[in-house]
Design brief:
Blueprint: H1 3-25, H2 29-41, H3 45-49, H4 54-71, H5 79-114, H6 128-134, E1 136-140, E2 143-150, E3 154-163, E4 167-173, H7 175-184
Antiparallel strand pairs: 1-2, 2-3, 3-4
Length: about 190
């Protein structure tokens, strides 16, 4: 190979590999977490909210709350009681879900507004190195489960899902974590 080929080929190959590496890195869940942490540090609520699928989080959290409530009730002994239990669960989900949506949005706003100032509901590590060190990411089909140790809450685990147009979003919190939070501050069914 001539010197001219090396002189042009090596930098071109490095540029292509760098571009591909950058594209890959910016399409990962860790990058989404990095961007979420940066939005929180800027106290940018609108940007931070883009990393949460509030509707899906509320659906899953509502299911966990209602299931936890029903698990503490006596088991139905007849078919009629079983049907009544299913009806009650359906009604409870419809009543609780709007409150959960409101609560999720409020918690996101609070966490973003208080980031770096005082203890919040969730404290995400900030910075590229912190994101790679602090978060354990494990694949779950097309989604991933992310685990990290929050200074105030202890272990926090949540699911992230790839969105067609927005990269990655948090789409579900671990049902056990939801149950603990619901027991700390119970939702009122109206």
């Amino acid at each position: 190979m001539s010197r001219r080929a090396w002189a042009w080929g090596v930098p071109a190959a490095v540029a292509v590999l760098t571009a591909l590496g950058s594209f890959y890195a910016t399409s990962t869940p860790r990058y989404a977490l990095y961007r979420l942490g940066a939005a929180m540090q800027r106290h940018d609520v609108a940007s931070a909210e883009r990393y949460f699928d509030v509707e899906r989080i509320a659906d899953r959290a509502t299911e966990a709350i209602v299931a936890d409530y029903l698990a503490r009730q006596p088991e139905p002994t007849t078919a009629a009681e079983s049907a009544g239990r299913q009806l009650a669960a359906s009604m409870a989900k419809r009543r609780v879900r709007p409150q959960v949506v409101t609560r999720v949005r409020l918690e996101i706003r609070r966490s973003v507004e208080r980031a770096g100032i005082q203890a919040t509901a969730l404290v995400l590590p900030v910075g590229a190195v912190a994101v790679f060190r602090a978060f354990e990411v494990s694949s779950a089909g097309p989604d991933v489960w992310v685990t990290y140790l929050d200074p105030a809450q202890g272990p926090v685990r949540f699911r992230m899902s790839r969105q067609a147009d927005r990269g990655w979003q948090i789409s579900e919190f671990d049902p056990e974590w939801v149950r603990r939070r619901a027991q700390e501050e119970p939702a009122r069914i109206r």
